[in-house]
Specification:
Elements lengths: L38 H4 L16 E6 L11 H18 L9 E3 L5 E3 L20 E6 L13 H14 L9 E4 L2 E4 L1 E3 L11 H4 L10 H11 L1 E5 L5 E2 L5 E3 L10 E5 L7 E7 L3 E8 L10 E7 L2 E7 L9 E8 L2 E8 L8 E4 L1 E6 L1
Parallel strand pairs: 1-4, 1-7, 2-4
Antiparallel strand pairs: 2-3, 5-6, 8-19, 9-12, 10-11, 11-18, 12-17, 13-16, 13-19, 14-15, 14-17
Helix pairs in contact: 3-5
Length: 359
């Protein structure tokens, strides 16, 4: 959303060290609330009048402030002064009751509560002309020609933290719906709604037009879904009595692991994993390493394309998450990974934990 660039420089004020870290009634998202510089932290003015509440919150509209000077910051304190200047412009020049954006993020990854009660509630904003059950998240800078500010990873990740925390369940980051008479993603850029370049080409490349893809949607969804771990002590694990519990060698996940002598028989250990949504997941495994482990422990991964066997050297990389690969999986509960004992005889294969991370 563009605005006049010339703004009076404001005197820096003392910033409160308090960050909004508590849970709130206005957000029901699955992700954890990140640190946020509250309105008192950045020295906000009181609104001119009461801000109406929205009945729901289902969409995140991403903006840039389109202020070239907003990019030039070296600290949270400097950015706070710029947020105050944005609020002054929105209230004094645009005639709005308060700053239009709900949240702002600077290039350092500092997050700021914009419109009043945005942390604790769902105030209607003034950010994309529709403003219906949506929140406006604005990146501070001019992410488009002629200034071409490239949003760094720390800035984008801070933005995704906010969206994943704030939009209530059952938001996933994926999908679309009618908004302002158009089909618009539940995560969208301002340009998807109106005639504008906002949030700039250099940010929009991370959003895109694939309602089930793009960095922004995938990263938000990954935060919502989180990591799903099934340990050998969990209900999702199954194995015959030939797989005995042990904790002799450190590096395992949880309280112990299962171990079995390698043998040319079909007697696999299995992990059943319940995935909340279909999509691409990175699959990793954990085990304790030792010299008597097989150098080709055969993990079999069952995915939408069939099954893939990945041989892992369990003599090395113990106590870490070892990635098997990334595949597409359907939602629901199913056997996702098996570990066979059918490999070179004379060793002991370890079944410990598997981890699925939404990509």
């Amino acid at each position: 959303m563009t605005r006049i660039q010339a703004m009076a420089a404001l005197t820096a004020v003392f910033l409160s060290s308090s960050m909004a870290l508590t849970s709130d009634a206005g957000a029901a998202g699955a992700a954890t609330q990140p640190p946020i510089c509250t309105r008192s932290c950045w020295g906000a003015r009181a609104p001119k009048n009461a801000i109406p509440e929205m009945g729901a919150l289902t969409r995140a509209t991403i903006h840039h402030t389109a202020g070239a000077s907003d990019w030039n910051t070296a600290s949270q304190a400097e950015s706070a002064a710029k947020v105050r200047a944005i609020q002054n412009y929105h209230m004094d020049s645009n005639g709005w009751p308060d700053i239009g954006y709900h949240f702002l993020v600077d290039k350092l990854g500092n997050r700021f509560e914009g419109r009043i009660n945005s942390i604790a509630s769902r105030p209607r904003g003034a950010h994309d002309a529709v403003n219906d059950n949506s929140f406006g998240f604005s990146l501070m800078g001019y992410l488009h020609a002629p200034y071409n500010h490239q949003p760094p990873d720390v800035m984008r990740q801070a933005l995704y933290d906010l969206i994943a925390w704030k939009i209530p369940d059952p938001f996933t980051g994926f999908g679309s719906g009618t908004y302002g008479g158009k089909t618009v993603g539940f995560i969208c850029g301002h340009r998807d709604v109106g005639q504008t370049a906002c949030p700039g080409d250099l940010m929009y490349q991370y959003i895109g037009t694939n309602f089930n893809g793009g960095e922004a949607r995938l990263e938000v969804n990954r935060r919502i879904v989180g990591s799903i771990i099934v340990d050998n002590t969990d209900a999702g694990f199954s194995a015959s009595a030939n797989w005995t519990a042990s904790s002799n060698v450190p590096g395992y996940y949880g309280t112990n692991y299962r171990v079995r002598a390698t043998q040319a028989v079909s007697d696999p250990a299995a992990w059943t994993v319940d995935l909340p949504v279909s999509g691409s997941y990175r699959v990793s495994v954990r085990y304790s390493a030792a010299a008597d482990r097989p150098t080709a422990a055969p993990y079999i991964v069952y995915h939408t394309g069939g099954q893939t066997t990945v041989n892992v050297n369990q003599q090395i990389n113990g106590g870490t998450w070892v990635t098997l690969g990334t595949w597409s999986f359907n939602a629901g509960s199913d056997v996702r990974v098996r570990l066979s004992c059918w490999t070179t005889a004379g060793f002991y294969v370890v079944a410990d934990a598997v981890r699925f991370e939404k990509m």
